[in-house]
Amino acid sequence: MYNKIAGLIFPAFTMLTLTVLAMFGLFGEGDVNKSFFLLGIVIIFPLTFLIQGISCATNNINPFLALLVSYIAFTIVILSFLNSSAWGYSIYYLVFWLVGFFGAKGMRKWRSRKK
User: Fold this and answer.
1) How many domains in the chain?
2) Among 5-14, 53-62, 65-74, the least confident range
C-alpha cells in the first residue's frame, strides 16, 4: 500500500520540494541557487521519473495515474518558475520513465523465465 503511494507521488514531491527551495534561495545566493535548480531539471527530475517507472512496473501501479500526477507537478513548476520552453523537458522525462517501466517489466519477465 505505502509502496504504491510513494511510487505515485515521489517525482511530484521531489520536483515541488526542489522548486520551493530554489524559489526561496535556500541553496545559496544567485548563481549557486540557479545552478542547483538547473542540475535538478537535467539530472534529478529525470532520475525521479526513472525510479517512478521502475516502481510502477514492480508494484503494479497504474502508469497513466502515475504520469498524470507527475506531469501536474511539472506543470506547477513550469508555471511558477520556468517559461513555456521548458515543455521540451517533458518528453525527456517521459523517455526516462519509459526506460524504467519497460526495463523493469523486461527484467521481471526475464527472471521468471529463468526459474
Assistant:
1) 1
2) 5-14
d(CA 98, CA 112): 21
What are 75-79's contacts with CB under 8 Å, separation 24+?
76/16, 76/19, 77/15, 77/16, 77/19
For residue 115 the three cell numbers come to 526459474
User: CB under 8 Å to 103, separation ≥6 — which residues?
Assistant: 53, 54, 57
d(CA 7, CA 24): 27
For residue 17, the enclosing domain spans: 2-114
Q: Say how far apart CA 94 and CA 98 lie, in whole Å.
A: 6
Average pLDDT, the chain: 81
* % pLDDT > 70, the chain: 90
Say how far apart CA 90 and CA 98 lie, in whole Å: 12
pLDDT tens column, 48-65: 889 888 888 888 888 888
Query: Are the CB atoms for 59 and 7 separated by under 8 Å?
Result: yes
Q: What is the mean pLDDT of residues 60-81?
A: 84
